[in-house]
Design a protein that fits this description.
The protein contains 13 helices and 3 strands, in the order H-E-E-E-H-H-H-H-H-H-H-H-H-H-H-H. It is mainly α. It has a 3-stranded antiparallel β-sheet, with no helix packed on it. Strand 1 and strand 2 (about 45-50) form a beta hairpin. Helix 4 runs antiparallel to helix 5 (about 155-170) and helix 11 packs across helix 13 (about 305-320). It comes from Halomarina rubra.
Length: about 325
């Protein structure tokens, strides 16, 4: 055995002995106040605290945070030396270089015409080399479609992330073959809305999509079955706040509509019914009971259901409530 190898082995043995001694000392330590041996480190690792009485047994001065200070969001963004976090909503997860479209230098001054044409060429080539094959081009187009539709629907960022993950899974499982990219992207967005508990009806999704309702429903059923997405039935109560807000109804009507939905659902009336139509009928009934009458046409327009649906569900709910 040569000398460097023996030296490395001795260093490893000494490190192991030091760790064992440190662990033994920590295990032997008890609280000076209550005698408990439950000493734990705080989240930032700067203090050793007794879990029983809260006494600070040891305090270190190691600050593991950044050396700079910031007092608002803009200062924090300015001083931070790291890039944006990775995101599933971009085909390259946001890790590639971005060339800004503004023809200005770091000081905000306009660049010369020669530099401007050079930046234009660089920007063009940057867009070309970001996608290396057909799969990435497919993903880039689909994720841009998901982002566009999500913006039109007004859903939060978390829904876009979930929709992007579902589409990536569908692409890896080769479920897109024989189907349109827009149809699969729309179905993934619809599934993500249901997953995150922010329901949007198929009619609302169809309004912002470029494919028909029938294709979206068919593709959604296929993808959810193949990927094993466990979807719970949509609760009509989740539609009530949004519909009441668009109809400018009071909180009293909203509370009454939720009560009607809960009582009638417990009696089994919700089974097999459309949640949007059921919520719309409950809002219509609640508006009559609270003297804030809205016509069936107004409620049907907001919920995107027919007036016949509201009349049928309304009659069933009123009979079940015994009103």
């Amino acid at each position: 055995m040569d000398y460097p190898t023996r030296q490395r082995e001795r260093e490893r043995e000494s490190e192991a002995e030091t760790e064992e001694q440190t662990e033994g000392r920590e295990a032997e330590r008890v609280c000076d106040e209550c005698g408990s041996g439950k000493l734990v480190n705080t989240d930032d690792g700067r203090e050793l605290v007794c879990d029983e009485c809260g006494l600070i047994a040891e305090e270190t001065n190691i600050d593991r945070g950044p050396e700079w200070r910031a007092f608002n969001h803009s200062e924090r963004q300015q001083k931070s030396r790291v890039g944006a976090p990775t995101t599933q909503t971009m085909h390259d997860k946001g890790l590639t270089t971005q060339i800004d479209w503004k023809d200005k230098d770091a000081y905000g001054r306009s660049i010369s015409s020669e530099k401007r044409s050079q930046m234009h060429r660089l920007r063009k080539w940057q867009e070309r080399i970001r996608t290396k094959d057909a799969g990435e081009r497919n993903l880039q187009f689909a994720l841009s479609e998901i982002d566009r539709m999500a913006s039109a629907l007004g859903v939060p960022r978390s829904v876009r992330e979930v929709a992007s993950v579902i589409y990536r899974r569908a692409l890896n499982e080769d479920l897109i073959r024989g189907r349109s990219i827009e149809g699969v992207a729309t179905s993934c967005l619809y599934a993500a809305c249901r997953k995150e508990g922010i329901p949007r009806s198929l009619e609302e999704i169809t309004e912002v999509s470029r494919v028909e309702r029938k294709e979206i429903g068919r593709t959604y059923r296929y993808i959810s079955q193949e990927l094993g997405l466990e979807m719970e039935p949509v609760d009509p109560k989740k539609y009530v706040p949004r519909f009441c807000s668009e109809l400018e109804l009071s909180e009293e009507v909203e509370a009454k509509a939720n009560e009607i939905i809960q009582v009638t659902a417990e009696k089994g009336l919700l089974s097999g019914k459309s949640p949007t139509g059921y919520a719309a009928a409950a809002i219509y009934a609640a508006s009559l009971l609270c003297n804030e009458k809205k016509t069936q046409r107004e409620v049907a327009g907001v919920a995107q259901v027919t007036e016949v649906t509201i009349r049928n569900r309304y009659q069933e709910q009123i009979e079940a409530m015994g009103i």
